[in-house]
Amino acid sequence: xxxxxxxxxxxxxxxxxxxxxxxxVIWQVNKPAAQKGGxxxxxxxxxxxxxxxxxxxSTDEEYLRGALEQENLIEGTESEYGLYVQxxxxxxxxxxxQEWWGYSVNGEFAELxxxxxxxxxxxxxxxxLNVGW
Amino acid sequence: MxxxxxxxxxxxxxxxxxxxxxxxxxxxxxLRLIPNVHPVTLLLLLAxxxxxxxxxxxxxxxxxxxxxxxGAGLWNLMYLYVxxxxxxxxxxxxxxxxxxxxxxxxxxxxxCFGALCAIPYLFIGGWxxxxxxxxxxxxxxxxHCVSNTVLTFVLLPPLRALLERLKARxxxx
Lengths: 133, 173
Prior knowledge:
The complex is a heterodimer.
Chain A: H1 2-30, E1 39-46, E2 53-59, H2 64-70, E3 74-79, E4 82-88, E5 91-92, E6 99-105, E7 108-109, E8 124-131
Chain B: H1 11-30, H2 40-51, H3 56-70, H4 74-90, H5 99-117, H6 119-136, H7 138-172
Helix pairs in contact in B: 1-2, 1-3, 2-4, 2-7, 3-4, 4-5, 5-6, 5-7
């Protein structure tokens, strides 16, 4: 009985590991394509006090996080799904006031975090400090 | 095993389940720098194995404590179903002593974590948003899966034996 249960367990374990591999394949096939080589992007930052700033960044980084960290523009904490951005251009979102940083890519609200957002030449990123969940 | 059948909690069970809940928060927060490596699923499966359906108490307790720590957000809703689901998934396995089966269950929960958390996005932005959100998090789900599997494979059997021994000693007194 114990042996049978153990065999079932091993089969379940193999199935789960196979599913994990399948999930990685799905991610590899569907992940947004990153562009290699030099790129120039524009990053606009809408501060809460109205002091808006704009940066033109030349970068070889493939994802937004790397490009922004290269210029020391963002800080945050590692979360289950990558960097949770708390500070942009020196301004930290005050969570007790329900403040949070969001961003758009070429005018469209971003669906990906900065770790997964691929950078393409000519992209424009608008960061806004929002208030209210 | 009787604890799982009685619906009322004894004072001792309240203390023990609260301790498990506290360990879940402490374990998650102390390993915060390593994304998705934590003993939360292990402890929930352990609670389900030993206390049965009463493991839902630490599952909800953990979600509420995390909400108290980090404030409001969409993830609040996700936590209120994703952790109790781990308990519900484990309940049919209670009789099993196969460490591989328990490890597989823990791994499956970690692997499905992102897909389960993507459900609210179905209603916010449709299936496209939900699927793209799930896919972008797959590498983190795989880390979650592997860490849950290893932690549960190694630690669940000895921790379960320890808790059951303590319970048996308590019943004898």
